[in-house]
Amino acid sequence: MASFQEIVKSNHLVLVEFWADWCGPCKMLAPILEQVKNHMGDKIKVVTIDVEKNEKLVAQMMIAGVPTLMIFRNGEQVWKESGVLQSQDLIRIIEKELEK
């Protein structure tokens, strides 16, 4: 399996969700992320990270709560927000990042 750094250094924008099994809002976000992925297609890669299984990465990325979403471009974090966003809001944020 590729390391986190290898994944976020992709030529595509990478949307990362930090989530947990016990997190109700994370469960609400799952179908929203699916809608975003279906809408954006190959323009973005979506990756989910279980905070329970990746404690070192969670500490390194300073994740304080779940769900937390981050967007990376060429390995650099360009956006971060905690909580549930609606698909149209996420799509708008991603499209703005794609224009840069």
Walkthrough of the structure:
- By secondary structure, the chain is of the alpha+beta class.
- The protein is 41% helix and 27% strand.
- It contains four helices and four strands.
- It has a four-stranded mixed β-sheet, with helices on one face.
- A hairpin with a 2-residue loop joins strand 3 and strand 4.
- Helix 2 packs across helix 4.
- The longest helix is centred in the first third of the chain and has 17 residues.
- The relative contact order is 0.24.
- The model has no long low-confidence stretch (mean pLDDT 94).
Number of helices: 4
What is the radius of gyration?
13 Å
Strand arrangement, largest sheet? 2-1-3-4
* Backbone shape: globular
Fraction of helical residues = 40-55%
Mean pLDDT: 94
The secondary-structure class comes to: alpha+beta
Distance between the termini: 30 Å
| Oligomeric state, counting identical vs distinct chains | single chain
Low-confidence stretches: none
**Main sheet characteristics:** 4 strands, mixed
Write out key terms for the chains shown:
41% helix, 100 residues, four-stranded mixed beta sheet
How do you describe this structure in short?
With 100 residues, this protein is α+β, with helices and mostly antiparallel strands. The protein has 4 helices and 4 strands, in the order αβαβαββα.
